[in-house]
Specification:
This protein is of the alpha+beta class.
Length: about 600
């Protein structure tokens, strides 16, 4: 392959979407010692990405080399790979980005009188000339993937790409609170956060004062080359999604299942279906970690994983123990400093000091809950009675043509219903026998399938909406907000009356009359998070309401009191077998598992 083609192929490893370009360019700004970084995008970043910093800049000779393959000033010998603290080191970002865009780089060192500018079109250098510019580096990337149309087709909508770009800048802003970060979209400032020595101020600016005041400062742990700092949310602030989980390793955002498990272990276990919220910062000797195992460096390999896990567990467990022993409530969060004027340069900020090793003050004790604040009863998520089939009932409310007359109800052991009820297993399983062997039924999964098909069967027309007396408000992540904008028409068809209240808040004014929800904001937030997690394209679905109905059915089934069904599960099995797809839930989990005699014989003979 020639050099141009090789660069375009290599770009696929580095440049996945506009957010990937922003990640690489901002990391270069950080490595250049910048104190302020400004990121601007147009049309989700596909039309324009502009990154300006006030770092060290480059000489004209270095600028001419920066777009060469594997050109880097961050390592000089092989041993440097094991001692580096820079964000990048392979020299692939600039040539990869330049090969799939129109790219302009202007730069000047503070000691130079004039700067330099270089222009690339599809990786080919067009011009290198003198230019007047402020100290630092200023990069413009236009028409990303203009020469690789197949790659461009995989981009999502402009709103979705902009949300990913904003999320990427937020990650850098969290990793380096001693720097100023600004993000501009379509000419409007989304956020502009000043440098601060207090990490909690940065969190308050990006996530709100209310969240920051609930945070508990992690007990600092420094052992075996591993240092742990940061903040966690107490157990009573657990979330139903993983949106509020951030791990930073030496200033680099990463993903690691072992660390997530260690945090849960530090809590002494965690309720099923809930996730802890945290901002965890790890500082590890570079020789003890390998960040070169993933093209985007999102995953790393620890050389002494047990030391990292032990440090995280000790920090989380110690924090919770200190909070339990503390007698005084938490101090309120000081008001954050006002952001500096855009026209004024930022002074060099001091590095973030480590948190105090003193025990963190405890959060104020929770007052006794009023009757309105009591947890919802087990049937709080049940739809109206016409969808709730009690054990003594014999039929499911289904459309005409699928209903079984009560007089024709099948009896246990009859040819039409060859099942004999044997008994129950602990919690939620019923055991039946038929002519082929045994059948184990999951009561919760069966109810989920039955409620789902009932909801879908009644959705031939738009779902009736129940107006709320008091609107509910849901705070959205940038990625969630982009998904909501795309799904607003489908929310209306499913019976939800929702509107965007500002850029990142959803106002819920009505819910489907089929539902009886008390935790409306939590339910809607979970549903949106599930859609945005996989960037679900509901418009391509055969029946978009099915995805909403699946979430509703899951919520209803999990909140039901199943003790009555375990006492007499035969009507439940009859209703399940009348469903179109009785053998699995809408998400694909089995509702019943057969154990035929032939399988039992095979297993016993194999012993």
């Amino acid at each position: 392959m020639d050099d141009t083609l090789a660069s375009r192929v290599a770009a696929g490893e580095v440049v996945e979407r506009p957010a990937s370009v922003i990640k690489e360019l901002v990391e270069n700004s950080i490595d250049a010692g910048a104190r302020s970084v400004r990121v601007e995008i147009i049309r989700g970043g596909s039309a324009l990405i502009k990154v300006d910093d006030d770092g060290d800049g480059m000489s004209r000779a270095d600028l001419a080399l920066c777009a060469k393959n594997h050109a880097t000033s961050k390592i000089e010998k092989f041993e440097d790979l094991y001692e580096r603290r820079s964000m990048g080191f392979r020299g692939e970002a600039i040539p990869s980005i330049a090969s799939v865009s129109h790219m302009t780089i202007s730069t000047r060192r503070p000691r130079d009188i004039e700067g330099s500018c270089i222009i690339f079109h599809g990786g080919e250098e067009e011009e290198l000339r003198a230019a007047g510019c402020s100290p630092g580096t200023h990069i413009e990337v236009r028409e990303l993937f203009y020469n690789t149309p197949a790659r461009r087709q995989f981009l999502k909508s402009a709103e979705t790409e902009a949300a990913h770009a904003e999320h990427q800048v937020r990650l850098h802003a969290l990793a380096f609170p001693n720097m100023r970060f600004a993000f501009v979209q379509e000419g409007g400032v989304v956020f502009d956060v000043a440098s601060t020595p207090d990490l909690r101020h940065r969190i308050a600016e990006l996530f709100g004062q209310e969240l920051a005041e609930k945070l508990l400062r992690l007990r600092p742990v420094h052992a075996n080359g591993v240092r742990v700092t940061g903040y966690i949310l107490p157990l009573n602030e657990a979330r139903r999604n993983k949106r509020l989980q951030y791990i930073f390793l030496n200033g680099r955002p990463i993903e690691d299942k072992n660390i997530l498990r260690a945090i849960r272990d530090g809590f002494g276990g965690f309720p099923t279906g809930l996730h802890p919220g945290f901002f965890l910062y790890l500082d590890i000797e570079p020789a003890l970690v390998d960040v070169n195992v993933h093209p985007a460096k999102r995953e790393v390999r620890f050389r002494r994983l047990s030391d990292v896990i032990s440090a995280v567990i000790d920090s989380v467990a110690g924090t919770l123990a200190d909070r339990a022993r503390a007698e005084h409530p938490s101090a309120p969060l000081p008001s954050p400093a006002a952001p500096p004027s855009p026209a004024q340069p930022l002074p060099h900020a001091a590095p973030v000091p480590p948190p105090s090793s003193a025990a963190p003050p405890a959060a104020p004790p929770r007052p006794a809950e009023s009757p309105e604040q009591e947890p919802p009863p087990p049937d709080a998520f049940l739809p109206p009675l016409r969808l709730v089939i009690e054990p003594e009932q014999q039929e499911l409310e289904l459309p005409p043509g699928r209903r079984t007359p009560r007089s024709a109800a099948k009896e246990e052991g009859s040819p039409d219903f060859p099942f004999h009820f044997w008994g129950i297993l602990p919690d939620r399983f019923a055991v039946f026998q038929n002519s082929e062997g045994l059948v184990v039924l999951s009561v919760t999964s069966a109810r989920e399938r039955i409620i789902f098909e009932s909801l879908v069967a009644q959705n031939k027309h738009p779902v009736m909406t129940q107006q709320l007396l008091t609107p509910a408000f849901v705070e959205l992540d940038a990625r969630d907000a982009a998904v909501v904008k795309e799904l607003l028409p489908l929310f209306a068809r499913a019976g939800f009356r929702v509107t965007l209240f500002g850029a990142k808040t959803l106002r819920v004014e009505g819910i489907p009359s089929l539902l009886n929800l008390r935790e409306i904001d939590s339910f809607v937030a979970d549903m949106i998070a599930s859609f945005s997690a996989g960037e679900v394209r509901l418009k391509r679905s055969r029946n978009p309401f099915e995805l909403f109905a699946g979430r509703m059915a899951t919520a209803c089934a999990r909140r039901e009191n199943i003790s009555a069904w375990l006492e007499n599960p035969l009507p439940l099995l009859r209703n399940l077998l009348r469903c179109d797809i009785p053998y699995c839930t809408p998400s694909g989990k089995p509702t019943m598992i057969p154990l035929p005699i032939s399988e039992l014989k095979r297993r016993f003979r194999a012993l």
